[in-house]
Amino acid sequence: MSGAPDSFVPAPERSADLRRAFGCYGTGVTIITTELEDGPLGMTANSFSSVSLDPALVLWCPARSSRRHDAFVTAKRFCIHVLNAEQLHVAKHFAGQGDGFSASDWAPGARGTPELRGCLAEFHCETHAVHPAGDHSLVLGLVTRVCLHNPDAPGLLFDRGRFGHFSDHRPAGQ
What we know:
Blueprint: H1 15-22, E1 27-28, E2 30-36, E3 39-45, E4 49-53, E5 56-60, H2 69-73, E6 77-82, H3 88-96, E7 106-108, E8 114-116, E9 121-133, E10 136-148, E11 157-159, E12 162-164
Antiparallel strand pairs: 1-11, 2-3, 2-6, 4-5, 5-10, 6-9, 7-8, 9-10, 11-12
């Protein structure tokens, strides 16, 4: 260990430190898509989590400051795409803008939500509930269909502000 821990009470003046602490927990990278009257919309998110097997529920948390927030929290349906390690360009595209689907191979899904090709898995959802959660909203989705495309391929990960993928390092003798 390198000395005493940096212990603090979360407060606005420590938001950068809190963000750095949250960043110590590596996550997968997803793109959430929905269909609006004027076309498809997407958003990169790492705030995805499974919630329940029965019923099948997932959650994700869009920032209230995002210009795409309102469209997603009012959408009846959405699709969560788990990205593979080779889809960094897609993640970066949808982190910056929600339209412009030409950056990715996609097709309209059976229930109207855009489906991105090349992902590891897709979770097609109906919005189950939306709850305010500080500077984000918590969106619960009822999973209506799952598509596993290549679940054994490496996934795209986000850790401490960096993208990468998991490398299996086993101790000698295992």
